[in-house]
Amino acid sequence: MPSWRAVGSEESALETELRLVQARLAKAARRVEDEEGNVSKLRQQLQAEQARLLQQQKSLESARKEAVQVTTRKTLTEQAKSKLVAELLQLEQSLKDLQEARKRDANTWSVIPYFGKNGESRRPLYVECAAVGVLFHPDKLQLDGSSIRPGSETNCSAERPSRAGSWRPEGRKTLVPM
Predict the structure, then answer these.
(1) Strand 126-129's sheet: what is its strand order?
(2) Are 12 and 22 in the same domain?
(3) pLDDT tens, 55-72?
(4) Which helix (H) or strand (E) is 8 found in, with range?
(5) For the chain, first and last CA: distance in Å?
(6) pTM as predicted
(7) Does 7 lie in the same domain as 28?
(8) Burial, 64: exposed, middle or buried (Cβ in 10 Å; 0-12, 13-18, 19+)?
(9) How many angstroms separate the most distant Cα atoms in the chain?
(10) CA pair distance 123, 177, nearest whole angstrom
(11) Are the CB atoms for 158 and 141 separated by under 8 Å?
(12) Of 78, 107, 136, which residue is a domain's last?
């Protein structure tokens, strides 16, 4: 039979062992609680990161749509610019043509029919001066520059007008046929 001492010492050894096991169990329980807290924190961080990722994806999609709109507006602006450049070139050419036409019109003669003192209606005689000579209309009689000399007179009175043309104040030359 075991002795009380042996039983007491066994009991005391078992109690010590029980305390050690309880201490390890309490330590393990604290570690489990700590790990559960860490898992909970990690889950919250994961949810926050997922929300941030979702927000960034939305921002990225919005930026892509805006980039497409900007590209479209840029294309339309470039097309409008090219149309305006073409129109500007056309207007500049028109202006140049009008200026040249105005210069040409400065040397234009206006022919005004003259019915004479008594209202006679004879065919008018027009004189066209050119670099090569003088042309009389409507008969198309032409005198070249070599046969015309200052101070020389023609004997044919039917070929030349009896009155010279007059100058108008607007800068246009007017021939008054006789």
Answers:
(1) 126-129, 133-137, 141-144
(2) yes
(3) 999 999 999 999 999 999
(4) helix 4-106
(5) 174
(6) 0.39
(7) yes
(8) exposed
(9) 183
(10) 9
(11) no
(12) 107
